[in-house]
Amino acid sequence: MMLRKLIILAGFCLCALSQAPATEAQTRLRDVVDVEGVRQNDLIGYGIVVGLNGTGDTVRNSPYTEDTLTYMLERLGVNVQGEDIKPNNAAAVLVTATLPSFARNGSTIDVSVSSIGDAKSLEGGTLILTPLKGADNEVYAVAQGSIIVSGLDVQAQAARETRGTPTAGAIPNGARVEQEIGYDFNRRESLVLALRDPDFTTAARIEDVINGAYGAQVAFMRDPGTVDLDLRGIQGSPSRILADIENLPVSVSVPARIVIDEKSGTIVLGEDVTISKVAIAQGNISIKVVESPVVSQPNPFARGESITLPRSSITIGQTGDNNIAMLEPNVTLSELISGLNALGVTPQETADIIRTMKAAGALHADLIIR
């Protein structure tokens, strides 16, 4: 029985996801691999936000804001030596951005702005011209503009309400690229395709798909996370070749996996998750899994082989109670979760049962707890 439903339980969200067999789960090559050398670069800068409505940094707790503001005004020709500046309408911030691959001079990128002082909110502020540097301490972009803040901070005499993070915001297209990263992609004689989720089966299928498309042995599986592509036997530039192969359909091998996110209260489990013979007692809940394989034999004097067919059953009930729910044979963990839900098992108890089954070796799946 294939389950296609979303079950909401108290603080937990149990997602029983039905997935097609691994041989039928197809996606594009570009969605499962990265090309070595084609990458983004992180940028960071220190700047000042002005125009705040009295929600900026205080001099006592953030003296560097006053120093930075004084230095900036002097560079603009304003003499503020000896002046007592109280920049409660300004805030010191860190500005971060990601420089995309092959970004060119004059193109724009998004930036994120975060307060590093005791400012209450950046709402209504404007970021002053801020250079953004890479790991090599070179300036690659310059940011400036009005900040968009999604958080809210409302304060009255006897109450205060905060929603989201008002001390962080963003500037869409707020930085302009001033320096390109030199990289001659078309001079490459080979490409290295790195799988985002290393897997022997998926890597082998990528090799077969590329070789089948060109009718020659041009792709070589190095390990479960890497496939090498020899460009010398293929006509066209590396850019053109990559454009041709990145949309090839690839069958992705999806492992059986369960993810428990305790922060957001979410449990996600795949349909391929299976369980072995096991009995569980949790509180007043009793669970018993029984496997009764059936042997199918050919008729006398007939040609054929004996086949063992799996047959499983799960019994879930409450100890001391005659109310017992029987699930169908050949059940999966998804159906077990549904049975627990029918008996009113709490989400936290369900997560504990899954952990215990994995520790006992009865749960055949990767368990990831975040």
UniProtKB/TrEMBL annotation:
Cross-referenced InterPro entries: Flag_FlgI
Signal sequence span is: 1-22
Q: Which domain of life is it from?
A: Bacteria
Q: Where in the cell is it found?
A: Bacterial flagellum basal body
Q: Which Pfam families match?
A: FlgI
Record's keyword annotation contains Signal: yes
Swiss-Prot/TrEMBL keywords: Bacterial flagellum, Cell projection, Cilium, Flagellum, Periplasm, Signal
Q: Which GO terms describe its biological process?
A: bacterial-type flagellum-dependent cell motility
Query: Can you list the GO cellular component terms from the UniProt entry?
Result: bacterial-type flagellum basal body, distal rod, P ring; outer membrane-bounded periplasmic space
Give one GO molecular function term.
Answer: structural molecule activity
**Cited function:** Assembles around the rod to form the L-ring and probably protects the motor/basal body from shearing forces during rotation.
Give the multimer and partner information. Answer: The basal body constitutes a major portion of the flagellar organelle and consists of four rings (L,P,S, and M) mounted on a central rod.
Similarity annotation: Belongs to the FlgI family.
What NCBIfam families does the record tag this protein with?
Answer: PRK05303.1
> What protein am I looking at?
Flagellar P-ring protein
**What species is this protein from?**
Hyphomonas beringensis
